[in-house]
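so the lab meeting is tmrw and i was supposed to have these ready like two days ago... anyway. pasting both below. for each one the top line is the aa sequence and the line under it is the structure tokens. i havent really looked at them closely yet so no promises
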Amino acid sequence: MKIQAEKIKNLLVQIDGFLVAIKEAENSQTDSLAKIAKPYRKSARNLVYYRALRKFDLRDFQKSMRQLGLSRFANAEGHIKASLLNTRLILQALIKDEGKKMLKSGLSIKSARRLLVSHTKDLLGYRSPGRRVRIMVTQPSEAANNYELVEQMVRKGMNVARINCAHDTPDIWLSIIKNIQVAAKASGRNVKIAMDLAGPKIRTGAIQPGPQVRKFKPLKNDLGEIIQAASVLLVPELEEGSADNALPIGAAALEGLNRGDELTFRDTRGKKRKLIIQERDKDGYLVAICEKTTYVKTGTVLQLSTLPEKVFVVGALPAVEHFILLKEGDVLRVDRTAVAGESAQYDDQGNCIQEAHISCQVPEIFKKIKKGHPVLFDDGKIKSKVIEVKEDCFRVSILRASEKGAKLRSEKGINFPKTTLGISGLTSKDNEDLKFVAEHADMVNFSFVNSKADVEELFAVLQELGAFNRLGVIFKIETRLAYNNLSEILMAAMQAKQVGVMIARGDLAVETGWDNIGLVQDEILAHCSAAHLPVVWATQVLENMAKNGLPSRSEMTDATISLRAECVMLNKGAYINDAIDLLDTILKDMEQYHDKKEIMLAKRTKLSIS
């Protein structure tokens, strides 16, 4: 017992040391704390406490606490001082020490939980019945003219609709927003609108376009027999959002054709082909079938079989999107000027006569690139190392690509995880888009925030637009620099009244390393818990489900882990409504057993077999 008492006294000394440290930290942050918005004053103070406590190596202390069956502070981020004082009181009672009186914690454990709930509601709106965690869904372009799609999203449980300003136009954004608002009102639900600023993301430039051609291929069985002919939609002209199987032949042509008519032609290979018209759809367009694989290009002449002199010419088709195929050991040149990219060219003997090249959309970075620095393309799918730097370009050697080679396309992200690029803050496009966001959205997602200065720049622009403290702000943590500056970003963020954090795990994993992403996302969650800030868990959640209709086992586990956040983001896909439905079910079912990070020990039940 004497040895046990000495251990407890040693723990009390350590706790007193922790309390002194957090008090000193608070005193040193007087100026910063004075700038915090009223709803976050207690939260900011607790974040200061948390940062001070994390300067200690607590592992031995935690082991000793565990041996006594007491709190190890593993889930105490949101109420540091209260947990320290409560634990000290328990330890004193164990050795009947009445030497020190209980101090006021300033923020009780219960109050800390209430703060997070309140801040989450202010930013993300009301939760769905039976579900604490909100669901955010990225809107596809199709949502602008497909009300039924949007209505299903709302009915299946979407709480926040996300529109990415990196894609589409203000007219399309407005149409999407109107559909969401109508669907929400019809369903009696509240759906918030969040809009992502594109930010200074570094991307690959254009690639030489391919021919203006479309391929139509019937579906065949293992014996090569046709089981479904290729469907071709004959339209007056192609528009943004037109179907991939559409062929433009002019408005006049559509009026003179009927069911059963056959259009004959020669495809790009000179092969005889025909289209057989089946019906006219609700939009007045003609649906035809093609029973053989065919390639149709701009300018192809179609003849009516019963009246050969009656011809129709295929209008402008989009160019086939090309790519650069890269394998391990290949060399790629990255150009400063906007030169259209091309694959490597080889002579008859297989010698490379022109290396593969592609441009970078942000020329400012070329001053920062150093030989030996790693460069990653397309969310880290292609890894390379800089082998040469010139004024107008740099060259990289491909270190990692898929076994058959990786396809690098235009508009793909480029990451420089060990290069300080000095690029952050709002772009000219962001400033223009913010005008629309301030007028039509409930919150803005700030991409590629890297520092306190970036936060202050955004707030200054929102002040000018009259949207500060009216528009909620979610700060997307997606770079190594943002992670390293996380505490100062959060402190600056809490000068506004409605703020949150998104863990953008795609770019973040590339920037910080795949081997570190588990630790990094845990640290972000912990810091946000300390600040009582709602967190959005983003990137590749149920991605396979949304795109292909069937989730992987790892996706199901990831969706369960997302209970540690206050909101989960789903990306667009053909099966997005099935993904929303599944995620809604997972979150509702698992919340019986998890409250944020804590396991809830409900009575164990066996799974029924149906």
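ok protien two:
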Amino acid sequence: MEDDQNTAHPLLRGGRKEKSFSHGFTKAQIQSLTAICEALIPSMPITALHVSSQRDPPPSPSLVSFYKASGSDYQVPDQVAELMVKRGLPDAVTLVSWVLWALSTRLGTLLLCGSTCLSLNFPFIRSFSEMPVEKREKVLMAWSRERSFFSALRLSFALFKIFCVYVFYSWTDVNSKNPSWEAIDYSPGPLKPPKNPPPKSFKDSIISTTTLTKESLVSTIKTKGITVTEDPSADLLTLECDAVVVGSGPGGSVAAAKLAKSGYQVLVLEKGLYFTPQDYSLLEGPSMDQMYESGGILSTTDAKVLITAGSTVGGGSAINWSACIKTPDKVLKQWSEDFSLSLFGSHNYRAAMEAVCKRLGVTEKCEKENFQNEVFRSGCERLGLKVEFVPRNSPEGHYCGQCGYGCRTGEKQGTQCTWLVDAAEAGALIFTGVKAKKFVMRENDGLERKESGKPWSRERDQRCVGVMAVTGCKVNQKGKKSSLRLMIKAKLSVSACGSLLTPPLLISSGLRNPNIGRNLRLHPVSMAWGYFPEQDCGESLRGKCYQGGIITSIHKLVLENQDHDSGVIIETPFLGPASFSAIFPWLSGSEMKEAMRRYARTVHIFVLVRDTGSGEVMKERKITYNLHRTDREKFKKGLRTALRILVAAGAVEVGTHRSDGQRIKTKGMRDEDFEEFLDGIEVFGGAYSGEEKWNLYTSAHQMGSCRMGADEEKSAVDERGESWEAEGLFVCDGSLMPTALGVNPMITVQSIAHCISDNMVEFLRDGEGGVSEAAMKHASEMVRKEI
């Protein structure tokens, strides 16, 4: 099995060779894109940046090569084009395609670049690629600040910049190396053998549909004891089980484990792939591509918020930064009282949190903190700010700093190492590479349920009888790729796709509750940074920003006129070089290279806000979000505190991620200068907002888009997790949260799932016979009719 996995997932190991591309851009458009990439990352002599002095040793060959390198090298433009088409939103791809076409013409360049493209020589107007790189760079600077009718150019700039620098710093050659990494002092790994390999029984429970033909898939399913029937004319397989769980993340894995351990046949559908710890390469590009939703390049429709979410077996828990914080008491009180959800005031919920923490092996302290957390803790202590250890689902001595790409040691206890293992040992099967398309409904005739007086006896208009899905890529015996439809008939169905995908799936299944897809919370994050040259720091602040435990310390900000919980927390992130470059402000090509040269010793501190603002997600990848004015005020106060922490810890320069590169050097800085700088801290909308300056926010926590409640008018599912509209359809992920949480949601999601799963078990036990034969026959007829 392990050899098969290694063969199946070569991208996770890196090693990108020269290749042909299928992005669809014309030669003229690629010429324009190449000119843009070269302007964003220009080649320059190292002396131009004054990086050496008489007392410094001469620059290393790698540093010289780094400054000479250009964004037009290494097939970067073609890779950027391909990544844009593969991962970009369709509207964004249309926009950049038009811009690239316009720039390939002289009149289009005049329209978009103004007088900068004019020349004294015939034909007097130059296309963008004909302009000197210095003038192209000035055009991009102007675009980044554009506020006029052409504000779409600012969005175009943001897209070009993010994709270009991301590709430049993440691509790898056949030896899994990037030429810039040595110059910026970055080295992924090391690749040590895992300490805790997964049990063989778990790997045997994984059915990787993308590596099997239809014939071998059917044979494999039958050997597992699952009833399966074939319909060759429709390229359809029909499977039968007690419960089907769509999604293998924190919510779905707990549900699968509790249902399977209660004696029910459970099938888990995961559209991502399964990787053992030994599969993890710790390479940023391929790891993000294979383990994150949309390859880690997902944003709101206006590019205001960059969103990261897991898309692999284990979901977000596989790439979580280990933080495991219980649901705050204030939140429990709010959900219990304001939303009339007695679950969150119950002993059962607190017992569930204890059970979850025990199963994940959560520890309360960290034996050794990394460079970033040492800086953070030092700054907090010097300012007299309370700083606490962050509980983690790993041993106290766990020092892996790249768990965002999967935990190579196997010490981090994600759900693929815990609850899914429990589910597999109880007989559950996990299908990978399977994408759910819709839950299959039929009219509820009211005869399939006994009127028991229990909560679920409430009559619903529909009955869910299973899910329709497709395999990601099936290879038949002739070597051709095709999709294969799967109809999974089940007595109980669970949507555990996460806050971004559960609403679109429910809507595509015909559900009409207006709360589905609304009330999306993102825990928006904004960052401050500080530069700590090694020669200016003592022995206590050694190391690199990407090494060691990612989040081990936390400061909970207390605001004036508020209680101890302001809804703002401050912690440290993990940023690989590509992610670092994508969110760091671009002021010029030289400024960007200088920022990347300092990458390893640049400490980031992030401010996370328990958001009042909200968004919507009705269709996949169509995410809108509005930042509330009160959240902006919290960001201002949080960023000011973060900057104070960095200065107190000894940073020689600090700044924010605001588009104008807001920063200040601290050497010789007077207190009044610093206070004036802090007074200028403001937060703005995204690149498409039309404001003078703009911010790029990030989000790693998505919640609330299918929230539970006691009232059908205000919620998408009832307090037991069951759909108001469809009997036998439960939701079991972060989308259930009534509001934003304010801390990492990993424990909360699993604790809610732990409680809701008891309701699912009770549903199956009390619903003798579950779905009738007539209902199953009706479902099959519906599927055939649709096909």
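from a quick look at the 2nd one: The longest strand covers residues 236-246. The chain is about 35% helix and 15% strand. will dig more after coffe
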